[in-house]
Amino acid sequence: MREKVEIFQGDITKLTVDAIVNAANSSLLGGGGVDGAIHRAAGPELLAECRTIGGCPTGEARITAGYRLPARHVIHTVGPVWQGGNHGEPAFLRSCYRNCYRLARESGLATIAFPAISTGVYGYPMRLACRIALEEAKSALESNPELARIVFVAFSPEAAGIYRETMEEVF
Ligand code: ADP
After folding, report:
1. Do the Cβ atoms of 8 and 159 come closer than 8 Å?
2. Whole-number Å distance between alpha carbons of 57 and 4
3. Is the CB of residue 71 below 6 angstroms from any atom belonging to ligand 1?
4. Average pLDDT over all residues of the chain
5. How many angstroms is it from 35 CA to the middle of ligand 1?
6. Which superfamily is assigned to 2-170 in CATH?
7. Ligand 1 and 117: CB distance under 6 A
8. With helix as H, strand as E and coil as C, how does 97-162 read?
9. 113, pLDDT greater than 90
10. Residues 69, 140, 163, CA angle at the centre, nearest 5°?
């Protein structure tokens, strides 16, 4: 199962997978960080489709086409803002990953790439977020045999190191 999980250091918009996940904000109308990079690479058609969705609450996810991206789809999910950890943040983050895997399954997608949701502007500590990401990957792989490949995109060498260490603990 572990062989289906890959850690990639770089830019998620370059990946050729069935879906890349966007760490969006609840308006789904674009923002900074990975969200800005995805909208720039996908082109204005992505924003036009997002406008028709009408937003997304924290912990939920919505799927669109990928437009000019090499990825066929974008799954937009809204992570929690870190407020110290006692405001339901872990449950919301877990729910983001679960809803992304659910949408992937419902859409018949086999390969998916995730950024480290909530760990940028939203301030979620990387190590804690990474553990949730990998635990949910394990449970998604256990429950969905169609899931062939999960890529975790680390934007820095430090983040890649944390993913690798956490892999040893979780898998
Ligand atoms: P959030 O608001 O959910 O915290 P951010 O976009 O600020 O979202 O950050 C989420 C993570 O995505 C951070 O770890 C950040 O370093 C990373 N990131 C930013 N740009 C990219 C990119 N082009 N590809 C992959 N990861 C990215």
Report:
1. no
2. 30
3. no
4. 98
5. 7
6. Leucine Aminopeptidase, subunit E, domain 1 (3.40.220.10)
7. yes
8. HHHHHHHHHHCCCCEEEECCCCCCCCCCCHHHHHHHHHHHHHHHHHHCCCCCEEEEEECCHHHHHH
9. yes
10. 70
11 is an active site residue: no
Q: Where are the domains of the chain?
A: 2-170
Residue 1 has pLDDT above 90, yes or no: no
Residue 13 three-state SS? helix
d(CA 83, CA 44): 33
Strand partners, 75: 21, 63
Regarding the beta carbon of 170 and ligand 1, being less than 6 Å apart is answered no
* Atom 27 of ligand 1: nearest residue by CA position: 34
Residues of the chain with pLDDT > 90, as a percent, come to: 99
**pLDDT tens for each residue of 13-50:** 999 999 999 999 999 998 999 999 999 999 999 999 99
Residue 100 binned pLDDT confidence (cut-offs 50, 70, 90) = very high
